[in-house]
TrEMBL record:
Protein name, entry field: CRISPR-associated exonuclease Cas4
Gene Ontology biological-process entries: defense response to virus
GO molecular function: exonuclease activity; iron-sulfur cluster binding; metal ion binding
Similarity section: Belongs to the CRISPR-associated exonuclease Cas4 family.
Natural source organism: Fundidesulfovibrio putealis
Amino acid sequence: MYAEDDLLPISGLQHLLFCERQCALIHVEGQWLENRFTAEGRVSHERVHAGGGRAGPNVRQAFALHLRSLEHGLSGVADVVEFHRAAPGRPWRPFPVEHKRGRPKRGSWDTVQLCVQALCLEEMLGQDVPCGALFYGATRRRLEVAFDETLRREAAQAALRFHQLVESGLTPPARYDPKKCDTCSLAEVCLPRSAASRQRRVRDYLDQALLLSDPQEGGAP
């Protein structure tokens, strides 16, 4: 179990799974820059969180619900948690819904973040949370997510890795990946292109040094 003072933000899991260097820049070094994508995401969350609460005969919605898990050392705010009517005499079933600005991603960072919200709800409410949903603004559609054992294990491992990274106090070196780096808000801080260029120069220097030291390649005896 973690102490209250040791809780890390649930949102940081997205940073971790997207890029460990980005995660360390934000959560170890305290760096942050905003671009169009982060601004659109922030505004989207603010709109959802302003919803307050809604109640219908079969579904109740709670907006901006605060979550925490002492077992996994995480805390945060759920965009929406729906409570679905169950059988008579049974508690309403929690169903977390996370809003995202874009489209479904190939990586697992959205589903892991949602699963962690479910783990928090289970710990807080003492109820099973078997599934939830991701709502993507670009498609205006929900993608339902089942919290199976594989996803739960990945979520728990991500939480543990997040704590290990922060506790280490170390920022991993930059590695340029155009699919990630070109849209990252921290590109000006991270400088992945410069790092990649330096790494190429070092490799070229070492290759040349090895070539010159090899007699079979015409180097010095």
